[in-house]
Fold this protein.
Amino acid sequence: MITTTPLPPHASVDDRGTTPWTALRSPTPLTWPKVLYVGGWVLLATMVFHIAALAVTGGTVTGPVSLRKPATFAETGWLTAWSVALVLPYLSTKRWHRHVIGGTVLLFGIGETSVMAVQAWRGVPSHYNFSTAFDAALMRGGAGGLALLFLIGMSVLLASSLRPTDAPRSLVVGVRLGVVVLLIGCVIGFAMISNMSSVFTGSFGSGFTGPQTGYVGPPQSVVGREYLLLHPHTQGGDLVLLHAIGIHGLLLLTVPAYLLDRTALPASTRMQLVALMGVAVLGAMAVIAGQSFRSLPLGEMGIVDQGLLAIAAVALLAAYGVVARALLRARRGDEAR
């Protein structure tokens, strides 16, 4: 007689052993982790395509119409989709929770990337652009509507992480910290939209006080020169770096917590490492926010704040190093057996 072991109630039909590769080889039966993995593959291919196109065409890697923009958004969507797929089976979720979380992640990743790609290939800005009815629809639907849906999905993910589960404590805390950081990134994004500018000059909502016609984004003289997504010489506080760190919250905190669960480290050590990583990321964001929301360019950051950022970076990298070493030891142990 063949017997089967029932899945834990929170997992439903979602398989904890699913990986990006198994999702490609065996996409059925469809579960949200598999759908997110496949969607992530599509976004990864989109990123690679636009990087190749950028190299072939010799286009600029900076500016509002660069092919780098769809590549960047595809990268964010790909990593977010896979991060959610990793941890979703470990959370106590109802069916509608999984539909909301998975659906909004997929809509946001593919939808935002599509908007960026369409506008980049048209040679027009994707953000703050109301030059035509089509441009305005993409701006409001993409930057506004899809982002709002994503915010709802991540709020449901955070609420799900607060429900009882048999997942390791360190992983659950890693999910919570990663989602909180991501939500902060979303709020920063909405602040940028409200001002129609990535440069903060002391107010919120200024972008809604004037007519939304043409390109209403900040001129290049305000943004300053870009160095690999960094704008150290803005005429105000740069919000791009803070936003970029935030929307990668799952990658920075949740994925390492997931990987820690694959090691032989004691539960207390895993918890300490997750806490250290959370303090490092949130601390760095607090320092950057203090500079940006005082309308000060990053290039004028004081020596104390620079020192705090350096400490946070060293602490985070050290924690990642411990995770990597523990994973290698666990893998060698498995191979020895």
About this structure: The first helix runs from residue 20 to 25. The CA atoms of residues 121 and 197 lie 22 Å apart. Residues 1-14 have pLDDT under 50 and may be disordered.
